[in-house]
Amino acid sequence: MPRRGTPMRFVHQICVDRRPKGLRAVYLVEADSDEDTAELARLFEQFGPMLENIRLSRGKLVSFAVQLQSGDQSILEQIEGLLKKNFGFVILHRSFDQLIYGIVCELCKDSGSTLIRLPKCDICRRPEPFPDTVVSFMDDRNNRIATRAYCATCTAESVGRSSKEFVISLLEADRDDFGVLRHMTLVRSRSAKKHLAFRIKSDAEHQFAMG
Length: 211
Ligand SMILES: [Zn+2]
Known about the structure:
This protein has 211 residues and is an alpha+beta fold.
């Protein structure tokens, strides 16, 4: 049921964005001041085109999750070297997994640092800084109504099917269960050449709306 006061919006198109997968890592650094924190942010931005970064915590413990855009792993050591020159406590963990995220959470508690909320996979609900697939629901004016994000593990179960089946099976597995879409007519949009997109063919009886 829609919540009172939030008008229903009809979904016209579903856009699917597959993100390139790259090696992931987490850096944990002890920062003594706001200047330290700003310097850290600058350092990661400097590597911008080569890696994506998301901050996991702020305060005494500053931590970043990164994902490499290329196969060149030496960037990870370059960053580690730069950090070690300027900061006393530096840890590089060469993946983003539940283990390291648990350590970040614990160290945040112990040091009074603030954990920054991470987006979660909408299927398994695990924190996911770099989702593999992002599905957007668009209205008839191409405005985004909502987005759903899925991790690589959950996405892998749907890979290898037709593109339409891929999207429907993800949305069916979603915690909010959009399985109703299986009974609607989805037409591949020709306008979206680069991205995968489907127009929902709706009539009086078949409309997909979100509140
Ligand atoms: Zn997942």
